[in-house]
Every structure is written in C-alpha cells, then in structure tokens.
C-alpha cells in the first residue's frame, strides 16, 4: 500500500468561534488559536483543520461565505492568518482549510448581482426558477427545515438553497463558476495551505432537468439533498479540479459526502480516481436515527451490531483501494462521549475507549476540539440559549406543527449541533478560560471538572490517553497500515478486531458498555509474547488472559510481533 503523510497524520478540528477568544468580545479568533499552538503541538497532532474563517455574515457560523479571499474581521486579519500558518509550519504541523463550494452567503457580491435582474451577467451563478401555481417550483425541503426555494420579489423568481435561505446554491453547470472556484483554490494553495475539507461536496451537482418535468412534487414531501447527492457529474468536476489545480501541490483533501456506502465512496477516493484522498462517511452517524428518511431528529438507541457492520464494511472495502477518514465527533454532531459512551459515572473510561477505537482503525483519525478532554453534550433548558440555525428552525417548525415542547426539547438535547459548539474548556473558572467577556454561547458548567488545565496535570486524564495513542500510532506502522479483521462478530457488548501488517499484529478489545463481559481469547492470536500497549485500566495481576473479564468500557490494545513466526 502506498505510504503518504496524510495517511500517517492525526487531524485536529478547530471550530474557531468556540476555540479561544483573544480580545474579550466573546468570539473565538485567530489570535486565540495562535496562543494555543503549543497545546496542539504537545498533544502530537499533525494537521489542524480549521472550520471557515472567511468573511461571512455568520448565519451558519461561517458556512455562508461572502468573500472567499478575506478573513472575517471578528476572527482577525490576513496577517493573523499568515502568522497562524507560519506558526503551525514552524512547529511541524499543517493547515487544512474548510471550503464551502456548494453555496455562498446571500451577501456574496455574486449573489447581490445575481438577484438584480434576470439578465444580469451573474444571474446564472445561482439556480433561479419560476414559481408554479402561485407558489415555489416544487415542495422539496431544505436541510434546515422549510422549502429549498426562496422567493425574490425583484425578479419574481425563486432561488434554490439546500441549507438556509441565506446560503444560495451555486450553479456548477456554469463554467464561469467553475473558473472562479479553481482560481480561488489556487490562490489559497499559493499561500501555502496544506489541504482542504470540501464542505457538502456531494451536493454541488443537482438533478438533471431541475425542477420541472423530472422533479415534480413529492408526497409526502422530501428533503432535496437526497436527490442531489453523489450524482455522476460530481466526479467529472472533481477530476477537473484535481487535474487543473490540486495535482500540482502535495496536499490533503477530504470531502464531506453524505448518503453513500463504501463501494460508492471508492468513486471519490479509489486509487487512480484523481479526486479526493478521503471522504467523511455518515452511515455511523445515522445509527441512532429512527429511519434513514426520518432525518436526524427522531432518535432511537443505536446498536453495537450495526456499528460493527457499518465500520467493518468501510474498513474492508476501502482496504488497499482507498482511504478512510475516521471520526466520532465534529461540529455538526453531538459529543461522542454522550452519544456512544457514557457521560455519567463512566465518562473517563468511555471517552478513552472511544479514543482507542478511532485511533486503531485503518484510516486517518480526526479529533474534534474538546474530545481530547472528554467534553460532553449540553442540555440548555430554554430554546433561547441555543444559537444554531438548524436547531432554531427545527424548533419553530415543530412548534408550528403542534408537537409538545418537551418532545422537541428532548430531540434538541440529544442532537442539536450546539452540543459540540459550546466553548472549549481551558480552565475551571470564569468562562472556562475561553473569553474574558460574555461568550457567544454559554459555557458548559461542567468546566469545573472538565478542562484542559486540570487534564494536563493529571497523568490519568483523557487528554494524556489521547496523547499516548497518537504517540503509539506514530511508533507502530501497524496502526496506520494494518489490515482490519473483525472478531466476535455477534458479541453484544464487545467490539474486537485485529490489524495485521507483515508479521506484526494488533489486537484491539473494546467493551462498549457498562457491563463486565468476558473476552475469550481468540485462537487466531498467540498469547505468548503479547505486549499490552495501552489500556484505560490497570491490568489485574491475577487475570487470566484466556478468559478476560472486562471492566466497564474497558479498552485494551495488544501488540504481537513476529506473529507469523
Ligand atoms: C456541512 C457543515 O459541516 C455544516 O456545519 C454546514 O451547516 C453545512 N455543511 C452547510 O455548509
């Protein structure tokens, strides 16, 4: 298998507005990130993915860009950006930018022009259609509730927006749009950035014939993105971007591609496809949704059998053919310890167990800010404390539909994106050391116990465990390149697998729950010469490896060298 730096890297994701505020305005900023570069270096991560910092009115915290080549003043200046990039590079780390190519802000000059008149030269930068029977062109819904169509009285037409009405979709059928995008990406590459996360890239190509004959109303109404996901032409556009721009730089690319399985993902990341290095998959993020069509808000308990099935599919199908991006948390998802672990009495062991999982799969691990501290969900009592556009739209829509308040809030507590967006917990006191002012969203009161200052001093903390996993991953190639094989497929509590590279083997044992199941040592792994590399518990002196009773959320990683000897 071809070895490359981006396969061997660990990525740390920063959500800038919530990471660190340097000037007391309650909003995280670039100088705040600069002040924490040593923290990131000490953790051992290689790449920092920074969510959008471009000029933006901020209806979706930066995923609504009004100028791709300017920094949002609240975040800082281009000089601050250059210093950040330099600061990362001098510490041996790289920077991955987050690029939103599917849509812009409705305040982008292209859109301001586009809405002027039907024959404005920028009209076709976006997707405009006539209404039908006095209403929108069809009844398709956006990601963030409500119609995908927004009426614009000036020209008496509707524009398409898969996300909020402040995020009009670009028209990638228009060669001028493609040209603008290629130039802009080139501009950032010349500055020396080391890669891109391509936001919502699966959606840039819309269904043919949109929206008329082939795209009628649906009954019941459907969310439009399902029809605009991973269509064939996306691949041509990505190949062109690769051949004309990306190919000339040694960078890392990851696409956000919802709605596909591993076979289809190979169309993006398969060796020789000339598209992306890896994509974020979402199958495991829908394991707690009542049904794929029900959207994310109708929550049911997830099942370990499904997690094994999904992850094993991605591990085996992409092996030697593509590459995985492994994550359990990001800025759009609840905190992973609250969702897949236990944020009560077993917070620390379960956070470490999940960390073990992410770092021992084949693929590049992604850590979301605060995950390395075991930060948890927040459950604000009042809707007024929430800030996220998706959450607020959902609340409004369900209230209007007559759904009882407690049911709506239950879903929000479990699934709101704000769970992951409360400020990074640096210290116990004040506003968790995030700001000296009033934070844009409230700090989680559990910062008194969960914070970086305390975690760095405690050798048994979640933070030190992440650090050790990252160190081990760099030390033993088998963590990166070893072939995955699932063990105990039907065990209801234990997720176990091996990774094999030449004559080196890793055995990973994860107890995903609070029970104490017995792990029967597999015949396929020799016990002699086995070395325990890491665990979230101290091994018991008298334990019998052949019949290992695991403690709640216990994780163990064993190394066997000369395993074929
Ligand atoms: C995916 C991003 O991760 C999310 O935060 C954003 O709201 C949408 N794309 C729209 O850009």
Key terms:
565 residues; alpha/beta; Oligo-1,6-glucosidase, domain 2; TIM Barrel; five-stranded antiparallel beta sheet; globular; binds 1-deoxynojirimycin; hydrolase; oligo-1,6-glucosidase activity; EC 3.2.1.10; Glyco_hydro_b
Give the bound compounds: 1-deoxynojirimycin
CATH architecture of the domain at 175-208 and 224-323: Alpha-Beta Barrel
User: pLDDT under 50 segments (min length 5)?
Assistant: none
Q: Helix share of residues?
A: 25-40%
Gap between N and C termini? 22 Å
Strand order of the largest sheet: 11-10-9-5-2-1-13-12
Q: Helix/strand-derived class? A: alpha/beta
CATH class of the domain at 175-208 and 224-323: Alpha Beta
Strand content: 15-25%
Mean pLDDT: 95
- Rg, please? 24 Å
Report the total helices: 16
Quick one: how many beta strands?
20
Largest sheet: 8 strands, parallel
**Which overall shape is indicated by the principal axes computed on the Cα atoms?**
globular
CATH topology of the domain at 175-208 and 224-323: TIM Barrel
CATH superfamily of the domain at 175-208 and 224-323: Glycosidases
Oligomer: single chain
């Amino acid at each position: 298998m071809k070895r490359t730096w981006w396969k061997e890297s660990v990525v740390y994701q920063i959500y800038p507005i919530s990471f660190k505020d340097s000037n007391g305005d309650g909003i995280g900023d670039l100088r705040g990130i600069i002040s924490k570069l040593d923290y990131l270096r000490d953790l051992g991560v290689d790449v920092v993915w920074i969510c959008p910092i471009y000029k933006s009115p901020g209806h979706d915290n930066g995923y609504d860009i009004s100028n791709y080549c300017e920094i949002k003043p609240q975040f800082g200046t281009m000089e601050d950006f250059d210093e950040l990039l330099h600061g990362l590079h001098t510490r041996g780390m790289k920077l991955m930018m987050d690029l939103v190519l599917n849509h812009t802000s409705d305040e982008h000059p292209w859109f301001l022009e586009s809405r002027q008149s039907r024959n404005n030269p920028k009209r076709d930068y976006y997707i405009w259609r006539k209404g039908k029977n006095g209403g929108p062109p069809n009844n398709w819904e956006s990601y963030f509730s409500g119609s995908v169509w927004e009426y614009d009285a000036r020209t008496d037409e509707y524009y398409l927006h898969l996300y909020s009405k402040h995020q009009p979709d670009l028209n990638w059928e228009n060669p001028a749009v493609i040209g603008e995008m290629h130039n802009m990406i080139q501009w950032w590459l010349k500055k020396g950035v080391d890669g891109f996360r391509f936001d919502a890239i699966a959606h840039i190509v819309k269904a043919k014939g949109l929206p008329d004959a082939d795209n009628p109303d649906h009954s019941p109404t459907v969310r439009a993105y399902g029809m605009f996901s991973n269509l064939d032409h996306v691949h041509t556009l990505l190949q062109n971007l690769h051949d004309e721009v990306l190919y000339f730089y040694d960078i890392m690319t990851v696409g956000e591609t919802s709605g596909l399985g591993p076979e289809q993902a190979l169309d993006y990341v398969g060796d020789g496809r000339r598209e992306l290095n890896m994509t974020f998959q979402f199958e495991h993020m829908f394991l707690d949704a009542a049904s794929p069509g029900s959207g994310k808000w109708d929550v049911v308990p997830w099942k370990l059998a499904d997690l094994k099935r999904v992850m094993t599919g991605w591990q085996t199908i992409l092996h030697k053919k593509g590459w995985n991006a492994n994550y359990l948390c990001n800025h759009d998802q609840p905190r992973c310890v609250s969702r897949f672990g236990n944020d009560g009495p077993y917070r620390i062991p379960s956070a470490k167990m999940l960390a073990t999982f992410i770092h021992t799969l084949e693929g590049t691990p992604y850590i979301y800010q605060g995950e390395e501290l075991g930060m948890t969900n927040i459950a604000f009592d009042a809707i007024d404390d929430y800030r996220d556009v998706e959450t607020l739209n959902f609340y409004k829509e369900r209230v209007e539909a007559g759904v009882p308040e407690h049911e709506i809030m239950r879903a929000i507590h479990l699934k709101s994106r704000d769970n992951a967006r409360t400020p990074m917990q640096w210290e116990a006191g004040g506003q968790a050391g995030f700001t000296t002012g009033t934070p844009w969203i409230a700090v989680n009161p559990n910062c008194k116990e969960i914070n970086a200052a305390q975690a760095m001093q405690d050798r048994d903390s979640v933070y030190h465990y992440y650090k050790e996993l990252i160190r081990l991953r760099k030390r033993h190639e088998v963590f990166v390149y070893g072939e995955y094989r699932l063990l105990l497929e039907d065990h209801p509590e234990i997720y176990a697998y091996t990774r094999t590279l030449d004559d080196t083997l890793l055995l990973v044992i994860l107890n995903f729950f609070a029970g104490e199941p017995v792990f029967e040592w597999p015949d396929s792994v020799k016990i002699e010469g086995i070395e325990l590399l890491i665990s979230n518990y101290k091994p018991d002196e008298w334990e019998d490896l052949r019949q290992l009773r695991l403690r709640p959320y216990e994780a163990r990683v064993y190394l066997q060298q000369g395993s074929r000897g």
